[in-house]
Amino acid sequence: xxxxxxxxxxxxxxxxxxxxxxxxxxxxxxxxxxxxxxxxxxxxxxxxxxxxxxxxxxxxxxxxxxxxxxxxxxxxxxxxxxxxxxxxxxxxxxxxxxxxxxxxxxxxxxxxxxxxxxxxxxxxxxxxxxxxxxxxxxxxxxxxxxxxxxxxxxxxxxxxxxxxxxxxxxxxxxxxxxxxxxxxxxxxxxxxxxxxxxxxxxxxxxxxxxxxxxxxxxxxxxxxxxxxxxxxxxxxxxxxxxxxxxxxxxxxxxxxxxxxxxxxxxxxxxxxxxxxxxxxxxxxxxxxxxxxxxxxxxxxxxxxxxxxxxxxxxxxxxxxxxxxxxxxxxxx
Length: 332
Ligand SMILES: *[C@@H]1O[C@H](CO)[C@@H](O)[C@H](O)[C@H]1NC(C)=O
Ligand SMILES: *[C@@H]1O[C@H](CO)[C@@H](O)[C@H](O)[C@H]1NC(C)=O
Ligand SMILES: *[C@@H]1O[C@H](CO)[C@@H](O)[C@H](O)[C@H]1NC(C)=O
Ligand SMILES: *[C@@H]1O[C@H](CO)[C@@H](O)[C@H](O)[C@H]1NC(C)=O
Ligand SMILES: *[C@@H]1O[C@H](CO)[C@@H](O)[C@H](O)[C@H]1NC(C)=O
Hints:
Elements: H1 2-21, H2 26-38, E1 60-62, E2 69-75, E3 85-86, E4 99-105, E5 108-109, E6 124-130, E7 133-134, E8 148-150, E9 155-158, E10 172-174, E11 179-182, E12 197-199, E13 204-208, E14 220-222, E15 227-230, E16 244-246, E17 251-252, E18 267-269, E19 276-277, E20 291-293, E21 298-302, E22 322-324
Parallel strand pairs: 2-4, 3-5, 4-6, 6-8, 7-9, 8-10, 9-11, 10-12, 11-13, 12-14, 13-15, 14-16, 15-17, 16-18, 18-20, 19-21, 21-22
Antiparallel strand pairs: 1-2
């Protein structure tokens, strides 16, 4: 009898810590196990064992108070991960998610899952370095709490939806390194000020940069390697506080002579465009300029002497129409 009781107690002691320490919400656990199944039990999710507390599993985090899953971050550092297939619809059934990330998963395919719109608490959505394809969906504008939207390095195509400007809390928008086409939406001028950092480089965006972008003031704007035409001076201006602007390798053609520059600029890259006129003397007042490149344009006249302009290499100025003066050869 004593032995049986002892055995009972021992079993109780062995099992109970587990039973009592299960913090994970059973609904969340069920959803996570469904996600694992939909991905065909990939090695990456091997720790998702139904007999253990899901708050302890890899790739997830629980809120310390509610114990609901608030973060799902599936990323691989090894290239041969066998996690494959589309984003499972069941990700939309983790209603407390604030962070959702799929990163470096080359076999993640298919479109961006519409059930994501159910995740109304989402602040951080990242799907990057995957083979997710199809459009950048309009429905992402429903995620009104989003602060970071990163869809870079995928196989996304089609236009940029103008509805994204309705995201009032957005701090950073990354759509770079996809196959996006068409113009930058005019609506991007109505982002809540100052406007998110914009990373749209390495796509096939075309047409003029909308004049409405004069109304926003992002810290960082990256538009390089597209087919954008015409003016880009609305991205500059004395009153802005932009620090990094890269519009290199486009088809931009405008007169640089009268452009005013934010004194906050740290890096300005205009290389490989059709920009004409002179380099304005105002640039000598940009005290913290560390990166500067106007090579491969149609600029002319003397490089203003002063400020940081003579600290840059010849390669920052080469291949223009008739630029001259230090660091290039003297003007005739
Ligand atoms: C992925 O790898 C794990 C462990 O190597 C294996 O158990 C699982 O069946 C594999 N899944 C697929 C879809 O190949
Ligand atoms: C997409 O898949 C191709 C091969 O199917 C692969 O070479 C490429 O690296 C993948 N892209 C990403 C970003 O993982
Ligand atoms: C990229 O998407 C296109 C369809 O938009 C598809 O034909 C192609 O196979 C995809 N590439 C990869 C590597 O998945
Ligand atoms: C810059 O700001 C000043 C004062 O805040 C204002 O008077 C001026 O019109 C602004 N200039 C531009 C180009 O917006
Ligand atoms: C400027 O851009 C050109 C063209 O891409 C490049 O060859 C050169 O190295 C760049 N110079 C600097 C200083 O970044």
